[in-house]
Amino acid sequence: MRPIPKVRFDALAGYARQPLSLFMAQEMAWFEHGNERVLGTLIRDNEDGDYGGIIMALDRKGRFRCVQVSPFIKSRRHAEVAMRREMESVAHQDAAEYYQGDEKGEPLDFFTPVVARERLHPNFAKVAEQEGFSSARGIIKPMMHWYEDPDGNFVEQFQTTGFDARIWELYLFAAFTEMGYQIDRAEAIPDFTCKSIGIEFCVEATTVNASREGPLSTVPQLDTDEGRIAFMREFMPLKYGSALHTKFKKKYWEKPNVKGKPLVFAIADFQGGASMIMTRSALHTYLYGYDYDWHKDEAGCLHIIPRKIEKHSWSTKEITSGFFNQPGAENISAVVFNNSGTISKFLRMGMLAGFGSPRVVLTRIGTAVDHDPNAAEPIAFKHNVNSPNYSETWVEGFDVFHNPNALHPLEEWMLPGASHHWLLPDKQMRSLTPDWHPLGSMTYISVNESAPVEAN
Length: 456
What we know:
Blueprint: E1 2-3, H1 6-13, H2 19-24, E2 25-33, E3 38-45, E4 51-58, E5 64-69, H3 76-91, H4 122-129, H5 134-144, H6 154-159, H7 163-178, E6 182-184, E7 192-196, E8 199-208, H8 225-248, E9 263-269, H9 280-288, E10 290-296, E11 302-308, E12 311-314, E13 317-320, E14 334-337, H10 343-352, E15 360-368, E16 379-384, E17 399-402, E18 419-423, E19 429-432, E20 438-447
Parallel strand pairs: 8-9, 9-14, 17-18
Antiparallel strand pairs: 1-2, 2-3, 3-4, 4-5, 6-7, 7-8, 10-11, 12-13, 14-17, 15-16, 15-20, 18-19
Helix pairs in contact: 5-10, 8-9
């Protein structure tokens, strides 16, 4: 029995956690035996303080699930000894002994091509084949066995034209699981129903993609001040508005499995290029219909002045600003966003969990919130993901824009670890933001050709 870090255990088996277990016991340590044939977590019962072990092995669909519980004992050391014996015993069993009998359907396989090679999305091909993307591939593989596909087309879309949208959905699946929710995908619409003790809300995911034709196929030039202003104040609000309005027209809140529950739209920008990491403020402007000017007084104090926005226009297209103000929008509880919810997040989280080639070096460069109340600009950072001091979570960078008119408000505590934003009556913004909250970043991949190859 060998100890493993929690991030490794979570990547392999965290999707098996039931919300109730988080209230009943505390996980104290995590272990593997037999080259991860068997996993285990030592828990402490919240009621009587006894220690016991949850032992897990792969079911017929390749998911780590509980197959044995070791005795609960007052002594932590004695409980670990008992757990080790149970793990060794379970590891010697035939694999069929681990099957639960309730597995339905065949396990999903994201990476075996189901279409001709020329149809593969170039980013899928990189993740599936290249050494530099091996950590992302490694962390997605155990996740895919837990992912339900009610539409029956997820794998094909993941490998072809829908790669970015499917990555965004996988990111949300991982983030909501990390927050302690059980994800129900029994219904094809909406994408997720997140459940915990006394909590249930629905999530529909969407993405902003490059337009191939029409007025939004021409993008403002970002190499001039005028172009950048047009991009952020006109073009990107139009792009966000188009994606959100497409979902809004479907009236998910009227469906029986959604009615009466908070409904969240989750959106991400996948247009490509560096612009993806800079469009957060454009979403904020469109949702609330306000932009903000600022200046500093002689004492260096920052003053922020709200400025109402009536519309956004580019080329021949125009929309009214203020998504949350339109009739019917009270049925949308919040819009969530994370421009880190890309394949780069899977690269970094995979490396943290010990997946991938040891020859890969990841460097993350970006900006983060400066909590100085008089700061007008974010702070810049550069992090070596390979460093033993590097840490990250799935929820890191997650923004929640709350609808001030929501019929079913989403409470701040329901999405722990995220940054939450509210529009106040005076049109100023109130934000509750974690101490460390990246606003945008890029991850650079290099492969040390002289290092030995020992892929995990």
